Amino acid sequence: MNRFDLIVVGGGPGGIFAAITAAQRGFKVALLEKNKRIGNKILVAGSGKCNLTHIGKPKDFLTKYGTNGKFLKEALNKYSPESLKEFFKESGLPLTLVEESGKYFPETFSSLDVVNLLRGKMLNLKVEIIENLKIEKIEKTLDEFKVNTDLGTYLCKSLVLATGGKSYPGTGTTGDGYVMAKELGHKIIPPKPALTPIYVKDYIFQELSGISFQDVEIIIWKDNKKVIEKRGPVLLTHTNFSGPGILDNSRYVENGSFLEINYIDKDYESLNRELIDETNRDGKKAIKRVLLKYFLPERFVKTVLNRIDIDENLKLAELSKEKRESLAKYLTSNRMEITKVGSFEMAMVTRGGVSLDEVNPKTMESKKVKNLYLVGEILDIDGDTGGYNIQAACSMGVLAGKSMKKEERE
Ligand SMILES: Cc1cc2nc3c(=O)[nH]c(=O)nc-3n(C[C@H](O)[C@H](O)[C@H](O)COP(=O)(O)OP(=O)(O)OC[C@H]3O[C@@H](n4cnc5c(N)ncnc54)[C@H](O)[C@@H]3O)c2cc1C
């Protein structure tokens, strides 16, 4: 009979960790996945190397999810980055730290190893993994859930929705969970793409694709107010700004936002002053040569000079005050109008989702529907790049798996 203590919908890290935790407690668990195989998103994570978590304590993590971060306090405290590392170590796939970035990966740097390990764990715990199925409807009866699928009907006492968000739909996350949650009575905060490139009006770096800046200041402005200021790497592409620093900042972009990048570790006044001083010292120096001293790539310098209509061979002394100020401004604090962020197809996570007001952060249980749990990216929570999203999904999954009331099912 297709009757379980727990059905988990969605075979990503959130659902898998909920399934493992509940099964360890003796629950009869089924995991339902629409794809042919579970863990598609894990397979693409960290470019196939799987950045599972980050260096830091739970309190450091809580600052990485914007204002909604506090929702994760219980989950991250109960199942911390240390716990996740311990889990993989005990399972025979220890995590290794990449010092420069603070990111943790499996020691084999293989997402496939992670998925295989998780599948093996679930099978050992007798979790029934049912793949390649289509869920038609989820109904709540008085004391059970009825999950109607093209492979038959499944019944359960507890249900975990862990269907992820809407980004990277090719991996299976097409926003189905929002419909399911809504039908069960939940409010959905409109989903938006996040961790995605930023497009600006009059982008000038089309020819500089591949040039990157290691650690620059990035600011998002809205209505002349700073929304977020966050340093990080920036990558120029054919059409947009990308790289981890831009992706992280993209989470805060709204209609009418502006992007500011400081390519030089100086403010406008300091750079302007330095250019004046240099002119007084050696006015015959070509402006291009002066700018190269700031470790800017040559092709970038040429493009910026061209944009401000300054001949690259122009001598410092020949540079007008107006042009010098425009140049200093462009390099330190030029605000660019954001036209859009990358689509759901390019976004690594989804911002928005099931409203956090309606979920108990101490258990992950719905406040609307008894015995319904929601974990992972389906919720209105998203984090920076660096392992914060997978860690959050795992921590929420474990918290849900631990919180279900066992006595009613034994
Ligand atoms: C390219 C890319 C790289 C990334 N790299 C990293 C990284 O290195 N580190 C990191 O921390 N985060 C990374 N992320 C983000 C991270 O992968 C996700 O935030 C995380 O996987 C979310 O976990 P989840 O369990 O909530 O959902 P998901 O992992 O999205 O899993 C949801 C599952 O539910 C299934 N599903 C959906 N609808 C249905 C349905 N109707 N019926 C049954 N099953 C359904 C989906 O097929 C999917 O398998 C990356 C994301 C992308 C797109």
The whole-number mean of residue pLDDT values reads 96
- Radius of gyration (Å): 25 Å
How many extended strands?
A: 18
Class from helix and strand fractions:
alpha+beta
How many separate domains make up the residues? Answer: 2
CATH class of the largest domain: Alpha Beta
CATH superfamily of the largest domain: FAD/NAD(P)-binding domain
User: What is the correct CATH architecture of the largest domain?
Assistant: 3-Layer(bba) Sandwich
The CATH topology of the largest domain, please? FAD/NAD(P)-binding domain
Shape: elongated
Which bin fits the share of residues in helices? 25-40%
Percent of residues in beta strands: 25-35%
Number of helices: 13
Ions, cofactors and other ligands present here are: flavin-adenine dinucleotide
Low-confidence stretches: none
Whole-Å distance between the termini? 17 Å
- Please describe the biggest sheet, giving its number of strands, its sense, and whether it closes into a barrel: 7 strands, mixed
Structure overview:
The protein has 410 residues and is α+β, with helices and mostly antiparallel strands. The protein has 2 domains: 3-192 and 348-409, FAD/NAD(P)-binding domain; 197-342, no CATH class. 31% of the residues lie in helices and 25% in strands. The protein has helices at 13-24, 40-44, 58-61, 73-78, 81-90, 111-124, 176-183, 244-250, 268-282, 287-292, 298-307, 321-333, 388-403, and strands at 3-9, 29-32, 53-54, 95-98, 103-106, 128-130, 135-140, 145-149, 152-161, 188-194, 198-200, 212-222, 225-236, 241-242, 257-262, 334-341, 349-354, 372-374. Strands 1, 2, 6, 7, 8, 9 and 18 form a 7-stranded mixed β-sheet that branches. Strands 11-16-15-12-13-14 form a 6-stranded antiparallel β-sheet. β8 (145-149) and β9 (152-161) form a beta hairpin. α1 packs parallel to α6 and α9 (268-282) crosses α12 (321-333). The relative contact order is 0.19. The model has no long low-confidence stretch (mean pLDDT 96). The site of flavin-adenine dinucleotide has 36 residues, from α1, α2, α7 and α13.
